[in-house]
Amino acid sequence: MPKFIDLTEKRFGRLVVLSLYGRTTGRKRLVWLCQCDCGNISKVHGSNLQSGISSSCGCYKRERDSEANRTHGMSKTIEYTIWRSMHSRCYNKNSSSHKNYGGRGITVCPSWHNFLTFFQDMGKRPSQHHTIERIDNNGIYSPENCQWLLRSQQNNNTRRTIYISHNGVTQKLFDWAREHEINPARIRQRLRYGYSFADSIKPKLPQRIKKYGKHNRLITINGETKCLSQWIKCFGISRATVKTRLKLGWNVITALTTPPRQTASHKHAVRIVLDNYS
Q: What's the whole-model pTM score?
């Protein structure tokens, strides 16, 4: 019969033996009452304590399993969301943005397929107004080609960016607008209306343009240029009539110069107006 060894007050891993509890069925193995560092009390076979099979009440295994199942603990952060969206644009063909990224051959570098590596390279997003931006718009997502930028700065670096040359200088429309302290949308609107770029970047135009949708533009008749609303007043035709004719596909000059009713007096009146601008 093996010699009895008293294990009371001895430590085995996280377990400290309190006292002998008893024996197993058949009185072959001793069972000891132990307290774990976590506070739990458990009954453990003496042979398991001495061999190292048991070193805790089970809390160590639960912690180890939890650590194995846990990845980085950042799945709810904005950086993780940005990382997921980056991969979706490049590899998910069902994504609405895939055609502009993966469809153009834009990929994510192999090391960034791991989120922790991506986070170590890019760091925390500076603010809620920053997004990830590729320096070379045709390059891949990689540490060398990416940076955090404000959305306003990122919108200034897309494939739709408009470059305009003026007085020997070529730069983006956004930069021209910032330089002259004017909204870029207002510059684009003025260009659509027929103004020169020099006039479009002025804080105030020489004359106010009233809004008549996409047809409100400058029109030249017999060498004189006016906006649509001014020609309407000159020819004495209603705005509703001109608007309807333009929707039907009429030429703008024909829509202005054709009277609502083809009477001799109207034709004569239009001819007089045209002669005044000859």
A: 0.38
